[in-house]
Amino acid sequence: MGIVLGANRYGKAESRVVRVVRDTPRHVIRDLTVTTLLTGDFAATHTDGDNRDVLPTDTQKNTAFAWAKEHGVTSPEDYALALGDRLLAATPAATAARVLVDEHAWERIDVDGTGHDHAFVRRGQGVRTVEVVVGDDWPSVVSGLRDLVVLKTTGSEFRGFLVDEYTTLPEADDRILATSLTAGWRWTGGEEPDGGWDAAYDRVRALLLGTFATSYSKALQQTLFAMGAAVLEAEPAIVEVSFSAPNKHHHLVDLAPFGIENDGEVFVAADRPYGLIEATVVRDDT
Ligand SMILES: O=c1[nH]c(=O)c2[nH]c(=O)[nH]c2[nH]1
């Protein structure tokens, strides 16, 4: 019986790369957490400790910072593609480079009705994400977001579900629907979409939020499907949309023992356990 190396990859996780463009008094900031991972023929380092083919993770980290200056950060997608290409070129044994970017958004502090030139406040609404893979084939680009916490106080029900001897859940014909959304949308061939990566991100995010707000929900599953379908209908260059969505339950509090009516007005926000709904919405021709 022989023992061989199975799947492996390596890189530097979570480099905190902050790029400031200060060519004019009106500065621009892009604040990123960057992870790089190389795959390829790295058997020798595992089996023999022979590191001649290994681009150190320290060098990968340095390249992430250098490329923020050399290539620039016009968008997380563009930067991730360029960084992946560079790491691949620098590492002959690598067959693919995966680059994960989280973007922490800052917005200008409003002073007397105008955004300040160089003072910013962190925008708390979710994190923009990018996952890029460059290698032998065409690049793969999945744009997305996570930790986008949304809630609606009506327009949601959950009824007609399967019932067995362990079912205690009452039917809900008017409930709070809340989730902390993780979503990823895959672009055809990794080409920059119309209007650029940043505008496309804004469009998709707005569609996700708008659809959550306006679609009546018979299940969180239905809401996720509606959000994915809205994105695929509006963006021909997106091939699939994936979601992971905890159902952040809000249980109606029983105030009857105190002689108080509770007509959908007081809830306890349950921490855990939570429902976990995951779905990918695709075109039927892909
Ligand atoms: O939207 C929902 N989907 C479910 O599958 C489910 N299950 C559950 O207990 N509550 C809910 N809500």
Automatic annotation (TrEMBL):
Keywords in alphabetical order, please.
Answer: Oxidoreductase, Purine metabolism
Q: Which PROSITE patterns match?
A: URICASE (PS00366)
Entry-linked SUPFAM superfamilies: Tetrahydrobiopterin biosynthesis enzymes-like (SSF55620)
List the Pfam families: Uricase (PF01014)
- Which Gene3D superfamilies has this protein been placed in? Urate Oxidase (3.10.270.10)
Might you give the EC number(s) for this enzyme?
A: 1.7.3.3
Membrane-crossing residue ranges in chain numbering: none
> For this protein, what reaction is catalysed?
urate + O2 + H2O = 5-hydroxyisourate + H2O2
One GO MF term on file is: urate oxidase activity
The superkingdom listed in its UniProt entry is: Bacteria
The pathway where this protein functions is: Purine metabolism; urate degradation; (S)-allantoin from urate: step 1/3
Family membership noted in the UniProt record = Belongs to the uricase family.
Q: What does this protein do?
A: Catalyzes the oxidation of uric acid to 5-hydroxyisourate, which is further processed to form (S)-allantoin.
Query: What NCBIfam families would the database entry show?
Result: urate_oxi
**Descriptive protein name:** Uricase
The species this protein was found in = Nocardioides taihuensis
What gene makes this protein? Answer: pucL
